[in-house]
Design a protein that fits this description.
- This protein is of the alpha/beta class.
- Helices cover 43% and strands 18% of the residues.
- The protein is built from 28 helices and 29 strands.
- The strands form six sheets. The chain has a seven-stranded parallel β-sheet with strand order 3-2-1-4-5-6-7, with helices on one face. Strands 10-9-8-11-12-13 form a six-stranded parallel β-sheet, with helices on both faces.
- The radius of gyration is 33 Å and the shape is elongated.
- It starts with a strand and ends in a 10-residue tail after the last helix.
Length: 794
């Protein structure tokens, strides 16, 4: 999901970064976006613990982003652009950006979603912190993309927006969150009842391990009062200073104020005028580590906010909750949600805002009674533990965002679909067999069954299972026509150039079927110029078929040398989303043929690159983390080791290497021995990357196959070392020499990357098996002790 805020990192918005960290601990894969940098010099130390780099949008989207979004959603783009242009007043009230500028930010977020989607990462939700600019961007992004969104409304961002604009911004939101009951009352009064039903209080939580109480030694000691906040009008610091002036002649104490802002010069002048220079210290803004230590050294926390004439006010000030967690009793004015955190007489003392005499009386009462201070401080800590724990708040947010319930329900439905006792077709007991399955959180799952003599395809979603008898597949709409000899035979013959194509007879045999993605068919045409055998692949996406056809034709057109043999593309049938290649007659390679396979691969890598797709490894490593986090959210036991490996790979710098044409899915099964030549099949995944990635995938596949064949043997993969060594040595002999060790280091890295990929695929196929865990363990072993040190790579 995307987490959108106005600026980042804000010293006064610790609750946002704490919330992000807590959600990440719960397996939520999120990316923080800010509409601007905060520009502040001091930042909270926990900001650096946020998993993904924070991304910033600007008031003007790049033309490439506009083009990308307009191409994907042309009607939505035009309608949203028109809406933004016709609604300039939608940004009135408290705002830093115009409606048009918010549209520009929304375009950049939409483009980011599309680029993540191209990397295999699907954004499922957007959450906007603050009801002013971020909420307007979220609305426009929803209109552009259809993506769901939710909003957290706080204080000024809520009360200083015209009610009609607020209603427009939240009308389509799935949830409206806020930090206190007073805000709920305001929202109830201004929203339609159907929208007000979506409003929910989620208190800002704090890290209870960061703010811990400290007991002060008994004896003579000047009591210390601490206050923390921005030096702005709504915080009421002038009232606090006047209360201190009333107490200072009769009672020794010190007040430390942490924070900065536009009122600091005026407050310092007021301090001097009130004779408080030796009592009150303004120490400026500091990060949370200084705040923690100052609170732990204090005896009382004080904050005296009020509602300003323009409506600005606090919700539940985070510093009040932090002070309570540190075991401090609170003296405060009852504004906004302060009374939801502090109970008068129990864990603090409250009074009406602007009542200086009452503020002074409450402060004096606690300064005079150490025992009462300590008792209230213990109760304050208990209050926070019960109601303001950041991890508990994160659990509520996960529920609100439906980021746990939906995937878990989806996972349970998938497990039921592959359980022989609960399959949606057949009667079990051998009547129905699972041939293939794929589960990935956030995407529809698929299962392929053989039921008696039929193939049955099921799409599994949280809401239920949809069963279709093969060849009906909604994601492959042309499949029934492709499997009709009277349709595919003449179409293929005509594309090859047979003038009498309508009379051609065809025999078809299904070779492979991946529900929702692709089917591979052997086609035998009898008679005429097109007579012969072919392989036809039907794709889920016509654009994908066109790209495969163009790249395949360009690749086969490149001059190559023995022993490489490539099957030529003979036809592209756009109406059927089919690409056809000539049949290659050959036999699978044996272990002894590994050097021949390596030599053919080296020739492929040496071909001049057609307009291929770049395959940057860092993109795949990000995808590994995202998918592992999603798996952990539905199955922590299986997901935790996968996420550990994914994060380790993501933090490892890929060894530098050359870029060339690569196969992209280089497994032993992709090679056929054809006399003296070696054919390399399935060039659908070709791209541009480090050629060591293909070598690593080959070695990793050998290891995975050994693990799958003998899962009880922890050293099963080591039996593949001779074949792996022969393949790597032959490849290295066939290419230009490199400095000692550099090639081996790159192969080590890509073996681990490929094993990570295979562990994720193993979970998708069979999540309850040991294979994902065993393959991931083999990858970690290779990272700890590189395979070249195990004599695999020589």
């Amino acid at each position: 999901m995307i987490y959108l805020t106005r600026s980042w990192p804000r010293l006064s918005q610790t609750f946002v970064v704490n919330e992000v960290l807590a959600l990440e601990r719960r397996g939520v894969d999120l990316e923080v976006h800010a509409m601007a940098p905060s520009g502040e010099e001091v930042r909270q130390p926990q900001v650096d613990r946020v998993r993904r780099p924070v991304r910033y949008t600007t008031d003007a989207a790049p033309p490439a982003d506009h083009a990308l979004v307009a191409a994907r959603w042309p009607q939505r783009y035009d309608a949203t652009s028109r809406f933004a242009g016709e609604q300039p007043g939608l940004s009135s009230g408290y705002a830093n950006a115009t409606t048009r500028q918010c549209f520009e930010h929304a375009v950049q977020l939409a483009a980011r979603c599309l680029r993540l989607e191209a990397d295999g990462i699907r954004v499922t939700h957007l959450h906007a912190h603050f009801a002013h600019d971020p909420a307007l961007v979220a609305l426009l992004h929803h209109r552009l993309t259809g993506l769901t969104y939710s909003i957290t409304a706080h204080a000024r961002d809520l009360y200083q927006i015209p009610p009609e604009n607020l209603r427009t911004r939240v009308a389509s939101a799935t949830s409206v969150l806020t930090c206190c009951r007073a805000n709920v009352d305001y929202l109830d009064a201004h929203l339609e009842p159907s929208v007000a039903e979506r409003v929910r209080v989620v208190h800002h939580g704090i890290d209870l391990e960061q703010f811990t109480p400290r007991s002060h030694p008994a004896g003579e000691r000047v009591p210390r009062v601490v206050s923390v906040g921005r030096l702005v009008e709504k915080k009421g610091f002038p009232d606090l200073l006047r209360a201190c002036a009333a107490l200072a002649p009769d009672r020794p104490f010190r007040l430390t104020v942490l924070g900065d802002g536009p009122l600091r010069p005026a407050l310092e002048a007021q301090r001097t005028a009130l004779g408080l220079d030796g009592v009150v210290d303004f120490e400026g803004e500091h990060d949370s580590s200084v705040v923690v230590e100052t609170m732990r050294a204090a005896d009382v926390f004080a904050l005296t906010p009020y509602v300003t004439t323009d409506g600005d006010r606090d919700g539940v000030p985070n510093v009040v909750v932090e002070a309570m967690a540190a075991g401090l009793p609170v003296v405060a004015t009852e504004v906004g949600g302060v009374g939801e955190a502090v109970t008068h007489g129990h864990d603090g003392l409250l009074c009406a805002p602007r009542d200086v005499a009452a503020i002074a009386a409450n402060l004096g009462e606690l300064l005079a009674d150490p025992a009462r201070r300590q008792e209230m401080g213990r109760r304050a800590r208990a209050t926070v533990e019960a109601s303001f724990d950041v991890d508990r708040a994160a659990e509520q947010l996960v529920d609100v965002f439906s980021l746990a319930a939906r995937p878990r329900a989806h996972y349970e439905a998938f497990l039921g679909a592959i359980d022989p006792a609960r399959m949606p077709v057949g009667e079990g007991g051998g009547d129905c067999v699972v041939l293939d399955a794929k589960f990935e959180p956030g995407r529809p799952a698929t299962v392929l069954y053989r039921h008696a003599t039929r193939l049955v395809h099921a799409t599994v979603e949280p809401s239920g299972v949809t069963v279709e008898e093969f060849p009906t597949d909604p994601a492959l709409p042309t499949l029934p026509a492709v499997l009709d000899p009277a349709v595919l035979g003449p179409a293929l013959a005509g594309a090859i150039g047979d003038p009498d194509a309508e009379r051609v007879e065809a025999r078809l045999r299904l070779l492979r079927y991946r529900p929702g993605r692709r089917a591979t068919v052997e086609v035998t045409l009898g008679g005429g110029p097109a007579q012969g055998r072919y392989v036809a692949k039907v794709y889920h996406d016509g654009a994908k078929a066109a790209a495969v056809a163009a790249e395949g034709a360009a690749l086969v057109g490149r001059p190559s040398r023995a022993p490489l043999l490539l099957a030529p593309v003979v036809a592209h049938l756009p109406d059927l989303a089919v690409v056809a290649q000539a049949w290659v007659e050959g036999v699978p390679l044996t272990d002894a043929d590994a050097p021949r396979a390596a030599a053919a691969l080296a020739v492929l890598h040496g071909l001049s690159v057609p307009a291929g797709r770049p395959r940057p490894v860092d993109r795949e490593l990000r995808r590994f983390v995202s998918r592992s986090m999603a798996i952990r959210s539905v199955d922590p036991e299986a997901g935790e080791p996968l996420l550990e490996l994914a994060e380790r790979l993501h933090s490892t710098q890929a060894p530098p290497g050359p870029a060339s044409l690569v196969h992209g899915d280089c497994k032993p099964s992709q090679f056929l021995a054809c006399g003296d030549d070696v054919a390399i099949l399935d060039l659908d995944h070709c791209g541009v990357a480090d050629p060591a990635s293909d070598v690593g995938t080959f070695v990793a596949t050998l290891r995975q196959q050994a693990i799958r064949s003998n899962p009880s043997d922890p050293c099963a993969a080591d039996a593949t070392e001779p074949t792996a060594r022969a393949f790597v040595d032959a490849y290295r002999d066939a290419v230009a020499p490199e400095p000692e060790g550099t090639f081996a280091a790159r192969v080590d890295f890509y073996v681990a990357v490929a094993l990570m990929r295979k562990a994720l695929r193993a979970f998708a196929r069979s999540p309850l098996s040991d294979e994902p865990r065993l393959v991931a363990a083999d990858a970690r072993r290779g990272l700890d002790t590189p395979w070249r040190n195990q004599h695999v790579l020589g």
